[in-house]
């Protein structure tokens, strides 16, 4: 079937008009080259739109899949070339519709996703197919409600109400809770943890806009409290011990939030909030007044920063390069300073329990290396130069990043020279 785009007819596999090649590879070694068209892919798929929006994206896209959903990937690519009103008529079985739906969601093909849902909602199912359908649509949110109503016609209002109340108490949004105090907050946090792990309906609840807004409000509240109590450390020296206890309690709440937000697709909100307040945090905890105090809080802050570095460094959260540079340049000097200092305190005092253990050190080091390698070359050079200038360059060990940077720099220079040589040879031949 052909697709009209800007007055032209395109057909998948037409090498004569193709301007991009999609290479589909299965884990078992099967592969196929599909000659495609950028205008079709970009207009129908958010994945391809994002992938091909970069000026240096290239004209070759490699997609990896399993043998089980290989044909579904091929079918999806073919459906991209169909007019939207014909997609529904091409779906012929529940099995293929479910498979195409899963691939369509992964590739951000909104219209095909809607067609698959419309088809599945309208056709009869075998009993064995029902579980596959529920698994495929359970995280799609309101768009999948016609199918959900058919599979499991339950009122989600009660579940949503309980979850919202638990979130509010867990993040102290509801204010103080006498006479229960912190016990109710801890109980609410445990309830949220249980619902996120065990409640089959919770993916539909957590995709709700009101629920997401409430969690974001809780996140903002906890971070604001953290900044507020940190500021008190410098304004009232007589209350340092009492304030430290409250800060450690708030950090525990932040750690809890860090553990639940990935299950609600809100990890990026957490990371951005941490990046935003990082300067204020360091401005306080590095104050000379706190040089020999609050080691437990300082270690906890490093642990939270490590989680943020991992999320960004390993691609769980995608941030623009300037944000990644800011994150590294903000926290790398502090981590480098604190690691030997905590080690020294531990060596001097065997009862000192705030050293960075080996697992924490390795996870932070690995995340930093990954972060550095994903930055623009000039930013990599700046960070590596600062790393080599310092007296202590043992931790984190960025030698791997430095070696890769050197190799990439040499390769880039070689490509430029080769390009110039080819250009000169072409000029001479003319």
TrEMBL record:
Keyword field: Ubl conjugation pathway
A Pfam family per the record: BTB-POZ_ANK-like
PROSITE patterns in alphabetical order: BTB
Domain BTB: 18-81
Domain of life: Eukaryota
Cited InterPro entries: At3g05675-like, At3g05675-like_ankyrin, BTB/POZ_dom, SKP1/BTB/POZ_sf
Keyword Signal carried by entry: no
Keyword flag Iron: no
Function statement: May act as a substrate-specific adapter of an E3 ubiquitin-protein ligase complex (CUL3-RBX1-BTB) which mediates the ubiquitination and subsequent proteasomal degradation of target proteins.
Database matches in PANTHER family: OS06G0129200 PROTEIN, OSJNBA0011J08.25 PROTEIN-RELATED
Protein name: BTB domain-containing protein
Source organism per UniProt: Erythroxylum novogranatense
């Amino acid at each position: 079937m052909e697709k009209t785009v800007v007055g032209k007819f395109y057909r998948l596999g037409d090498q004569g008009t193709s301007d991009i090649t999609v290479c589909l590879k299965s884990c078992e070694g099967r592969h196929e080259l599909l000659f495609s068209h950028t205008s079709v892919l970009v207009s129908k798929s958010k994945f391809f739109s994002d992938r091909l929006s970069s000026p240096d994206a290239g004209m070759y896209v490699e997609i990896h899949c399993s043998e089980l959903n290989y044909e579904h990937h091929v079918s999806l690519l073919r459906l991209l070339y169909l007019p939207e009103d014909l997609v529904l008529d091409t779906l012929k079985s529940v099995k293929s519709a479910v498979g195409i739906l899963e691939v369509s969601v992964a590739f951000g093909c909104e219209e095909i996703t809607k067609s698959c849902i419309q088809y599945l909602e309208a056709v009869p199912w075998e009993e064995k197919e029902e579980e596959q359908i529920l698994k495929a649509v359970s995280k799609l949110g309101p768009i999948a409600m016609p199918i959900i109503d058919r599979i499991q016609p339950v009122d989600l209002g009660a579940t949503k109400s309980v979850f919202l109340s638990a979130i509010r108490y867990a993040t102290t949004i509801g204010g103080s809770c006498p006479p229960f105090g912190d016990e109710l907050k801890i109980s609410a946090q445990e309830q949220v943890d249980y619902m996120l792990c065990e409640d089959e309906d919770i993916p539909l609840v957590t995709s709700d806009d009101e629920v997401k807004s409430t969690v974001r409000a809780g996140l903002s509240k906890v971070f604001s409290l953290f900044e507020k109590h940190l500021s008190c450390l410098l304004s009232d020296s007589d209350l340092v011990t009492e304030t430290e206890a409250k800060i450690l309690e708030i950090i525990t709440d932040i750690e809890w939030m860090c553990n639940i937000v990935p299950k609600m697709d809100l990890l990026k909100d957490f990371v951005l909030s941490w990046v935003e307040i990082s300067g204020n945090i360091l401005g306080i905890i590095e104050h000379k007044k706190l040089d020999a105090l609050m080691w437990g809080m300082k270690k906890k802050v490093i642990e939270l920063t490590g989680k943020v570095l991992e999320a960004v460094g390993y691609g769980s959260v995608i941030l623009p390069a300037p944000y990644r540079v800011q994150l590294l340049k903000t926290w790398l000097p502090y981590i480098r300073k604190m690691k030997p200092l905590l080690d020294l305190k531990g060596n001097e005092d065997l009862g000192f329990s705030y050293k960075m253990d080996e697992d924490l050190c390795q996870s932070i080091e690995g995340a930093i290396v990954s972060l550095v390698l994903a930055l623009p070359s000039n930013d990599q050079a700046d960070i590596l130069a600062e790393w080599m200038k310092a007296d202590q360059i043992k931790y984190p060990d960025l030698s791997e990043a430095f070696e890769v940077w050197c190799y990439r720099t040499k390769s880039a220079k070689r490509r430029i020279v080769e390009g110039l040589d080819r250009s000169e040879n072409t000029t001479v031949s003319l």
